Amino acid sequence: MSAKPVPLLEATGLNVHFGGKGLIPALRTPPLRAVNDVSLSVMPGETLGLVGESGSGKSTLGRAILRLGELTSGEINFDGVDIARATLGDLSQLRRQSAMIFQDPYGALNPRMRVGDAIAEVLRVHRKVPPEWVADRVAKLLNLVGLDAGYARSRPLDLSGGQCQRVGIARALAVEPKLIVADECVAALDVSIQGQIINLLMDLREQIGMAIIFIAHDLAIVRRLCDRVAVMYLGRIVETGPTEQVFTTPRHPYTASLLSAIPDIDPDRGLPENPLAGEPPSPIALPSGCAFHPRCPKALPVCSTGEPPQLGPDGPHRAACILPPGEIRS
Ligand code: SF4
User: Fold this and answer.
1) With a cut of 70, which residues of the chain have pLDDT below it?
2) So what's the pLDDT on residue 327?
3) How many CA atoms lie within 13 A of 204 on its CB side?
4) Ligand 1 pocket: which of 310, 323, 328, 329 to mutate (most atoms <8 Å of CB)?
5) Which is deepest, 45, 143, 150, 169, by most CB within 10 Å?
6) Is 323 in the pocket of ligand 1 (CB under 6 A)?
């Protein structure tokens, strides 16, 4: 009997709340609940898309998972290590096995530092190669992301946005990561350059076998790149499943609304014509019951009371909605 596959990353009950503290209770402001009771897992080599509107908590969750940002509570097991309660030594292991790619390719690099030095810095800090091999490894990393080794002498402002993002990816790859969190990493690029960077990520995933958490609001790119998708609304995952299942048979009205707003995603599939109305409520004053009820075209009176619905029973495709799956499409 073959052994059950073990997730590379398993996060349970993650919360990230800002504010809401202070010695004098009467002066405390309510906490901003950016991430609420989120659980997710990522298998080795898997690409998980994290989607949702701006302010849904995707980036905050991505940073919390890599312990680059606030984490109020929850458990994170990364490659067998509990990194939610990690010691500095555990965190340095995480830093050696994970990396983040940011949205702003220029902002992620020191404008005064040559590209080669920026990549070499990562190699030296993590002692990836002996000092005499650093220049050679820098050249190989630049080649790996489709840049000539001569770019090592360039400074970020000498490069286009797409070239700069390739350097950001080379820097991320320098640690030979098991997991990369890519946060809107193509959002600032022209559409043609976006395609090149996505192709590069797909190639690298094949070659290196790293897992990727791909944070994006562009659903067409997520559909192309990701094995599974998790849809976030107001800090919660409201639907998760294999990408094609979620895109063709969404089980949460929020997902259905997001998809119906995109004209070129399977126009023949008959997704409901319910464009998403209004802005999401404030994460400081979450609505009672299902947080999506003020905007939900399918809401019932019971949806506005009680605890928020939880993701459905175990299975690959789950949604946090009281309606049976067949009633989402109409
Ligand atoms: Fe809409 Fe109710 Fe489902 Fe929430 S629980 S998504 S309000 S139908």
Assistant:
1) 1-2, 263-275, 329-330
2) 77
3) 27
4) 323
5) 169
6) yes
Q: What is the pLDDT of residue 272?
A: 47
- Residues 16-34: tens digit of each pLDDT: 998 877 777 777 778 889 9
The SS3 call for residue 150 is helix
Strand partners, 228: 48, 242
Q: How far apart are alpha carbons 156 and 108 in whole angstroms?
A: 10
Tokens at residue 211, please?
């897992």
pLDDT digits (tens, 9 = 90+) for 156-201: 999 999 999 999 999 999 999 999 999 988 888 888 888 888 988 9
What pLDDT, on the 0 to 100 scale, is given for residue 236? 96
pLDDT attached to residue 275: 55
Question: What CA–CA distance (Å, rounded) separates 3 from 14?
Answer: 28
Measuring CA to CA, which residue among 100, 87, 102, 80 is closest to residue 9? Answer: 80
Nearest-CA residue for atom 5 of ligand 1: 321
d(CA 320, CA 131): 52
Q: Whose CA is nearest to atom 3 of ligand 1?
A: 321
Question: Coil, strand, or helix at residue 161?
Answer: helix
Cβ contact 224:214 at 8 Å: no
Give the CA angle between residues 124, 127, 130 to the nearest 5°.
85
Q: Domains in the chain, ordered, with CATH?
A: 9-327 (3.40.50.300)
Rounded Cα gap, residues 222 and 303, in angstroms? 29
- Ligand 1 binding pocket includes 253 (Cβ within 6 Å): yes
Q: How many residues does the chain have?
A: 330
